[in-house]
């Protein structure tokens, strides 16, 4: 009897799994979400969730908006305030990430204890992989830069990422570099054509002191002819955002 009961339990459990797998989305949006979650021969670009905490500052809002713009069309922006506390309970954030099919998140808050606070993190299988606390020391949004300086650069073009400074001198910076690659490298390219470089994002790291610093600069690149008639060169013009960050420890 025990053996039959155990077999029956397994059979019921197997049937329930089959029923779960046989479920189909009833709406077009649901079918698109399920299709994105299926295994892919070529991995799709990572999607980013941008959201605010219960209280934010104008500086935090500007940084979040610019991160959303740099991540388009693979980013989702929640403009309302959310009662989310990632370091106390990550469950609400994991739920929002799964619901919106995002594996990256940028979360901003502002308080007296932690002013102009930014949290960047990654998810794997809808569960937290890692996250980093950063203090926004200074920031100039895209709106502060002359629109004409952008030239023909499209906000949705693939950027070239440059890492400069002491990224390997600190375990925190080395880990943060991997996260920044996921955030800003929308698609990996097997080869690069100089003609196709429209945007360049430069990250400069300084490991001095207990709290490493990271400077983010965003440029539009234009290929121009040399006056001497030699090889062309790339002219860089800053288009924003320009952000100075400092790593925080809890």
UniProtKB/TrEMBL annotation:
| Pfam families in UniProt | Brix (PF04427)
Q: What is this protein called?
A: Ribosome production factor 2 homolog
Q: Which SMART domains match?
A: Brix (SM00879)
Specify the superkingdom: Eukaryota
Location within or outside the cell = Nucleus, Nucleolus
- Organism field: Calcidiscus leptoporus
**PROSITE patterns this protein is in?**
BRIX (PS50833)
What PANTHER family does this protein's entry cite? BRIX DOMAIN CONTAINING PROTEIN, RIBOSOME PRODUCTION FACTOR 2 HOMOLOG
GO terms classed as biological process: maturation of LSU-rRNA from tricistronic rRNA transcript (SSU-rRNA, 5.8S rRNA, LSU-rRNA); ribosomal large subunit assembly
The UniProt entry's GO CC annotations, sorted and at most eight, read: nucleolus
What family classification does the UniProt entry report for this protein? Answer: Belongs to the RPF2 family.
**Where would you say this protein principally sits, based on its record?**
nucleus
Q: Which GO terms describe its molecular function?
A: rRNA binding
InterPro entries from the xrefs? Answer: Brix, Rpf2
Q: Start and end of every Brix domain?
A: 46-250
What are the alphabetically sorted keywords of the record?
Answer: Nucleus
